[in-house]
């Protein structure tokens, strides 16, 4: 894969964040402060604009630029967290002009590790980690089974990863939040799907669409 | 919900234009969204820098000026500023003695200021940080993000600001800022939710007969919900929560703070009840603030913040200050 599917990924994320903005805002007003949709829309619009303006030459440079833009533009907790995820993923891809399915899986693992480290969150804390972890593991498993996945096989693996992320996001509903603003609610955070896990699932789903296209 | 705005997207930028037009003592950088003292950094003085989501006015921009902050970085409504703002502001207020970041304990603020501090350090600016976490409504445990920073932020900015004006070194200013926070506690009660300009709807539903107890300042619901009661009972609940966490005694600095939608006359009703509740416990408010200092847009409600004073902290509180929202003694 060259930079093109990665550019499309960011385009797909910006589109789905825009389409789901009200849902994210509604989820965030239940247990947060009702700004997740607006913040991500602003951030990914800016990231997309930066990618168009600067036309990075490699997938690694593209993801790093996206991460830096998110950190600079979003604010809140999601800016540094998603920004770090994309930057770490970009760093893992290095300077290579073209990357394999295994490279992509490794980059997503590095992105998740960055989020876990910065947010000190674990699975079960009711955060984006609950959606990202099963997705990253699903892709890693597929790549371990066969390193040179064809385009169609990779798309299939990413579809499974997106489903795992969606299930992970839904699984946050009965959880009590232990990180972020929702944690202030204690038991009152139970019964609501985490907005960060929801947007994380959108991002994985966008990657599937970008690669399948 | 009607709002006195031009558009939801331009609220922060438009308000910054207003600050610039109203206060010639301040300089506003609209591009980077930073409010500075117009006089610039003073060589040898520690620079005090704070910031956070907008919607809490006069916090923080209203506290920029002599005796308090050197710069404030407002984020979007209820969203922390981004590291770029903080880095830019830090470089501009450094008079060679370093910069103190005053950060309210919210995941977003902590992460963004932390990233900024790391990048500033790479550029050779000496940075110390104080985390404000005074809200007793949140139990500080492994199961939460820790206590929120609320009303005590005003005390920290005022007292650390006064000390910085004396030319005290960064470590000393940071120590006293931390001491103010450690000696302060807050508790908030909401009679209604707030409405953000973007969503246009209340952030949570609260009936005429209910209040949110232990509410934060970002429109998030509180620790629990209870029946609406008179001012005396509501204040007792707040003061009891403060006392339970750090027993009230001796001389206190007390703020009865409005959340933005509560008339001043009601805040004075509340202050009378606070004074009575303190007297019952052998404590008294020797210094006080009554008004809207840390607001939550148009939320109806109040918070009570106390700081257990020492001689040094009282002296620094009394020192001259000249900002849009606090000014005395000069």
From TrEMBL, chain A:
<dbReference type="InterPro" id="IPR012737">
    <property type="entry name" value="DhaK_L_YcgS"/>
</dbReference>
<dbReference type="InterPro" id="IPR036117">
    <property type="entry name" value="DhaL_dom_sf"/>
</dbReference>
<feature type="domain" description="DhaL">
    <location>
        <begin position="4"/>
        <end position="209"/>
    </location>
</feature>
<protein>
    <submittedName>
        <fullName>Dihydroxyacetone kinase subunit L</fullName>
    </submittedName>
</protein>
<dbReference type="Pfam" id="PF02734">
    <property type="entry name" value="Dak2"/>
</dbReference>
<dbReference type="InterPro" id="IPR004007">
    <property type="entry name" value="DhaL_dom"/>
</dbReference>
<dbReference type="GO" id="GO:0005829">
    <property type="term" value="C:cytosol"/>
</dbReference>
<dbReference type="InterPro" id="IPR050861">
    <property type="entry name" value="Dihydroxyacetone_Kinase"/>
</dbReference>
<keyword id="KW-0418">Kinase</keyword>
<dbReference type="GO" id="GO:0019563">
    <property type="term" value="P:glycerol catabolic process"/>
</dbReference>
<dbReference type="GO" id="GO:0004371">
    <property type="term" value="F:glycerone kinase activity"/>
</dbReference>
<keyword id="KW-0808">Transferase</keyword>
UniProtKB/TrEMBL annotation, chain B:
<dbReference type="GO" id="GO:0005829">
    <property type="term" value="C:cytosol"/>
</dbReference>
<dbReference type="GO" id="GO:0019563">
    <property type="term" value="P:glycerol catabolic process"/>
</dbReference>
<protein>
    <submittedName>
        <fullName>Dihydroxyacetone kinase subunit DhaK</fullName>
    </submittedName>
</protein>
<keyword id="KW-0808">Transferase</keyword>
<dbReference type="InterPro" id="IPR050861">
    <property type="entry name" value="Dihydroxyacetone_Kinase"/>
</dbReference>
<dbReference type="InterPro" id="IPR004006">
    <property type="entry name" value="DhaK_dom"/>
</dbReference>
<keyword id="KW-0418">Kinase</keyword>
<feature type="domain" description="DhaK">
    <location>
        <begin position="7"/>
        <end position="328"/>
    </location>
</feature>
<dbReference type="GO" id="GO:0004371">
    <property type="term" value="F:glycerone kinase activity"/>
</dbReference>
<dbReference type="Pfam" id="PF02733">
    <property type="entry name" value="Dak1"/>
</dbReference>
<dbReference type="InterPro" id="IPR012736">
    <property type="entry name" value="DhaK_1"/>
</dbReference>
